[in-house]
Amino acid sequence: MSRNLTVHLDDLTIHKAKVLAARRATSVSRLVANEIERLVAEDDVYQQAHETAIAQLQRGFHLGGAPPQDRDSLHER
Q1: Burial class (CB in 10 A: 0-12, 13-18, 19+), 38
Q2: For 7-52, what is each residue's pLDDT tens digit?
Q3: CA-to-CA distance for 61 and 57, rounded, in angstroms?
Q4: How far is the C-alpha of 15 from the C-alpha of 55, rounded, in Å?
Q5: Inter-axis angle of helices 28-59 and 11-23, to 10 degrees?
Q6: Burial 1-34, CB ≥16 within 10 A → b, else e
């Protein structure tokens, strides 16, 4: 489903957007829609990466080496 969105911009920005859209053989509406879609997609990727990183941090990492020991055995002399 597609819906309209109203955006208020100053005259100079609108003029420049029309020129840019013409150079790209598209409409200002399509230009704006593409940019918003790109931003939303980037944010989705970021959010997924963030959730994955948090889950990995909560699980922890095994970096090799000896298994953990209790405090007393570590400090025996």
Answers
A1: exposed
A2: 999 999 999 999 999 999 999 999 999 999 999 999 999 999 999 9
A3: 7
A4: 47
A5: 90
A6: eeeeeeeeeeeeeeeebeeebeeeeeebeebeee
Please give the structure tokens belonging to residue 76: 């025996």
Which residues are CB-neighbours of 21 under 8 A, at least 6 positions away? 27, 28, 30, 31
This prediction's pTM: 0.69
Angle, vertex CA 24, rays to CA 23 and CA 28, nearest 5: 95
List the structure tokens of 64.
């090799």
Please name the amino acid found at residue 5.
L
